[in-house]
């Protein structure tokens, strides 16, 4: 797609830095280099240039150009690698803003142009957005895989098989009044069955992929004064929660983000669960129970085994039971103390192991939009197989269900009905991306 205007923006982080990068994309990109650097470097060759604003020198910078079709956006692109002073960056941005045909880019506009010019498809754009937001190693690896086209490649493979099955069905329909020498049923069933099995496997791994992207919630559950807030502060390495000897001090949910062996975890310090003494504490207790149930994992801090039942929160598979205030406990089992540090490393290892186990078999479906499209395709493919097994044989309805399945995959990739999701996706991008 041809754009009439040329956009520019700071592509690196704002503030003082060793190097700052300003990116320019569009038909006037190379012209902007000529006006600021007085000479155009060879494409994809880094050149040292003195930048000028008229007769005023701005900075000595490295300049790189990428010709149309060989750049991130698919357009002519230029990059100015400047000294990263705030005044330097502002001076060059101001100079670019005064050039005819150039304007400051909107959030995500460079990536949107890459999408419009078929340099990226929609899942790759979403993977790029997640890569920029990645905080842990697991998130980085997952986002990078999607950005490099893992989901796109699978969709294209599924699509090719389904298009082949559609061609076979259409041939039978077109020659319904004639004897078709070959029974196409076995091949159609094989093609559709293979795609259905692969899609179902991806759907099964969606929950794990979503948890890697959004993070796992681990709730500290227990009676008041069992040491939850002290433990949270010890793990966080700061006073995230108020601690005191007064029961019921924690009234709200306190959250601390952790990176546990590359996996994102949010630790929740909940109000102590007991018979509330006032209305405010009662609200805190009810909220604590609700968040505990919704959490992925619960860590029960107790003084004895009977307390797990008395707390009133149902224990689920994968939950962890540990003796709170372990420095004072004589009960056997895993003990933890936020005051002395006893058992904290062992507890974090238990949480890490449980979280890792839940990421096994994660798929490339990292967003709810992906899941909805794939589920739609799965439902239609199941109808296809049921239709083939029925007395109706091979007909228009089965062909229609196959087309609906292909359309669902096209929606996922962004070939159709893409506009309704673009605004939401690009709203999270920074201006220089």
Shape, per Cα inertia axes:
flat
Range of strand content: 15-25%
Q: In sequence order, what are the helices and strands, one letter per element?
A: EEHEEEHEHHHHHHEHEEHEHEHHHH
How much is the average pLDDT? 86
Largest sheet report: 6 strands, mixed
Chain oligomer state = single chain
Distance from N terminus to C terminus (CA atoms, Å) equals 18 Å
User: For this structure, what is the CATH class of the largest domain?
Assistant: Alpha Beta
Please state how the strands of the largest beta sheet are arranged side by side.
3-4-5-2-1-6
The residue fraction in helices comes out at 40-55%
Q: Count the DSSP helices.
A: 15
How would you name the CATH homologous superfamily of the largest domain?
P-loop containing nucleotide triphosphate hydrolases
Number of strands: 11
Q: How is the CATH topology of the largest domain named?
A: Rossmann fold
* Low-pLDDT segments: 241-250
Provide the structure class. alpha/beta
Count of spatially separate domains? 3
Radius of gyration over all CA atoms, rounded: 29 Å
In the CATH classification, which architecture of the largest domain applies? 3-Layer(aba) Sandwich
């Amino acid at each position: 797609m041809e754009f009439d205007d040329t956009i520019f923006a700071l592509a690196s982080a704002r503030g003082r830095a060793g190097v700052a990068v300003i990116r320019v994309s569009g038909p006037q990109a190379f012209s902007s280099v000529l006006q600021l650097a007085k000479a155009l470097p060879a494409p994809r060759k880094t050149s040292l240039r003195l930048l000028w604003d008229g007769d005023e020198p701005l900075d000595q910078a490295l300049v790189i150009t990428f010709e149309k079709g060989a750049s991130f956006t698919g357009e002519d692109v230029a990059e100015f690698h400047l000294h990263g002073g705030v005044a330097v960056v502002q001076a060059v941005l101001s100079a670019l803003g005064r050039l005819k045909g150039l304007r400051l880019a909107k959030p995500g506009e460079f990536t949107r142009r890459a999408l419009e010019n078929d340099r990226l498809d929609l899942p790759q754009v979403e993977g790029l957005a997640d890569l920029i937001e990645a905080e842990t190693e697991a998130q980085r690896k997952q986002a990078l895989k999607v950005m490099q086209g893992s989901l796109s490649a699978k969709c294209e493979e599924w699509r090719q098989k389904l298009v082949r099955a559609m061609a076979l069905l259409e041939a039978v329909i077109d020659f319904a009044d004639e004897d078709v020498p070959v029974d196409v049923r076995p091949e159609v069933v094989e093609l559709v069955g293979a795609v259905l099995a692969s899609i179902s496997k991806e759907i099964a791994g969606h929950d794990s992929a979503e948890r890697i992207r959004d993070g796992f919630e681990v709730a500290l559950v227990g009676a008041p004064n069992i040491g939850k807030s002290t433990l949270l502060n010890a793990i966080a390495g700061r006073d995230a929660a108020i601690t005191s000897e007064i029961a019921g001090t924690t009234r709200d949910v306190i959250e601390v983000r952790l990176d546990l062996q590359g996996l994102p975890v949010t630790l929740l310090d909940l109000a102590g669960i007991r018979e509330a003494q006032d209305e405010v504490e009662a609200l805190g207790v009810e909220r604590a129970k609700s968040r505990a149930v919704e959490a992925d994992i619960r860590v029960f801090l107790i003084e004895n085994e009977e307390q797990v039942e008395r707390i009133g929160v149902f224990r689920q598979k994968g939950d962890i039971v540990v003796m709170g205030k372990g420095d004072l406990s004589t009960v056997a089992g895993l003990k933890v103390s936020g005051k002395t540090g006893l058992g904290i490393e062992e507890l974090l290892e238990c949480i890490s192991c449980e979280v890792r186990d839940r990421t096994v078999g994660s798929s490339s479906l990292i967003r709810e939009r992906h899941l909805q499209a794939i589920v739609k395709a799965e439902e239609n493919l199941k109808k296809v197989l049921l239709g083939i097994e029925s007395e109706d044989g091979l007909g228009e309805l089965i062909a229609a269900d196959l087309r609906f399945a292909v359309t669902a995959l096209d929606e996922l990739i962004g070939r159709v009905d893409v506009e309704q999701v673009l605004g939401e996706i690009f709203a999270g991008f920074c201006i220089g991306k």
